[in-house]
DNA sequence: CTGTATCCGCTGAGATACTG
DNA sequence: CAGTATCTCAGCGGATACAG
């Protein structure tokens, strides 16, 4: 159970590093509203760089959470869409973000206490 | 909603970088079985380094998820324990890990397909 | 429009040695 | 026993420029 070499732990840790990365959850939750083109995603997530959006989408595509559809026209058109696997991830992720929102005050309070103590010691 | 500058998104993203880091979930799930001393945790999670265990525990403590109790004896004794906030996180995290376990085959399959295609193109 | 390629700084994380 | 300090290296991620 606690051994990172066993395949279950590795899968969990892989999933966590994916959803734990800086952009995946944001992209998935945006795509939850329906398919988007590349630059639509950029507009809806203004702070993401082109490079990171590409990398994030590739990662999600590799894991089978997002599908990528190319329409070879001029200009080219690429649509990204959640797969059913991607949609099924929404439930657990929402549970987590709801928890974060609900407990935000308590977390910030704890951080404040911790940092105040740290400063006391430093002083 | 998609703006990383708004406090809600920042809290969520902070939470994700905590539970998304390499060790936090492992530590929390170990502590779910009851309080542990520092070296007990090291023994139960053999692959964690001393440094990373310390840093992980500090982070969890700062967020109010774990409490740290020092008994100034010789040798010194320090017990780590989940707070009620820490326990309440177990539910959402379990939902996520259950999802990962349930969908592990499909994810690996998707990765296999993706990597096979990539190799085809490379060849 | 939808990417890829490159450079580069910052942080995460391991190894090792030292301290109260 | 329970840490801190320092070195080191790899990888993430931003900015920018280029390409089909």
TrEMBL record, chains A, B:
Domain HTH hxlR-type: from-to ranges: 9-108
Nucleus is among the record's keywords: no
Keyword Translocase attached: no
A family per Pfam: HxlR
Organism of provenance: Sphingomonas cremea
PANTHER family with a match to the protein in the record: TRANSCRIPTIONAL REGULATOR, MARR FAMILY, TRANSCRIPTIONAL REGULATORY PROTEIN
Highest taxon of source: Bacteria
GO MF, one annotated term: DNA binding
Record keywords: DNA-binding, Transcription, Transcription regulation
Name of the protein described by the UniProt record: Helix-turn-helix transcriptional regulator
InterPro entries membership: HTH_HxlR, WH-like_DNA-bd_sf, WH_DNA-bd_sf
PROSITE patterns: HTH_HXLR
């Amino acid at each position: 159970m606690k051994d990172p070499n066993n395949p279950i732990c590795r899968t969990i840790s892989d999933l966590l590093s994916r959803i734990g990365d800086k952009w995946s959850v944001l992209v998935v939750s945006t795509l939850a509203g329906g398919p988007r083109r590349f630059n639509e995603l950029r507009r809806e997530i203004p702070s993401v760089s082109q490079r990171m959006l590409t990398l994030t989408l590739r990662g999600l595509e590799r894991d089978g959470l997002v599908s990528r559809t190319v329409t070879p026209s001029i200009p080219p058109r690429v649509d990204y869409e959640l797969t059913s696997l991607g949609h099924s991830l929404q439930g657990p992720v929402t549970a987590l973000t709801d928890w974060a929102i609900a407990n935000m005050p308590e977390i910030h309070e704890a951080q404040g206490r911790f940092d105040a103590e740290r400063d006391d010691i430093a002083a």
